[in-house]
Amino acid sequence: MVDNPEADIALDILTELRSEIAPELSLDLVRACYFVQKNNQFNNDRSIAMAEMEKLIDAEVEKMAAGVEGRR
Questions:
Q1: How many whole angstroms separate alpha carbon 11 and alpha carbon 62?
Q2: Model's pTM, two decimal places?
């Protein structure tokens, strides 16, 4: 039985593993990607989730690249 009905065990595990395996990976990106997948899990058209994921990842890459450029 779960004490907190709002708890999302999958997200908790995912974020915990992220901190162990890839702590440099943005927690916001991980959460956003998780919710894209969760919100589209019953949608037969996987292209919607793929497009949303691509946008999130592209934005994160651009942010990281801007940070690297700013250090030069």
A1: 25
A2: 0.79
Summarize pLDDT for 46-65 with one digit per residue, the tens: 999 999 999 999 999 999 89
Give the mean pLDDT of 27-52.
96
Query: What does the alpha-carbon distance between residue 29 and residue 11 come to, in Å, rounded to a whole number?
Result: 12
Give the helix/strand (H/E) hosting 68: helix 46-70
* Long-range contacts, 34-42 (Cβ 8 Å, 24+): 34/10, 38/10
The domain limits of the chain are 9-70
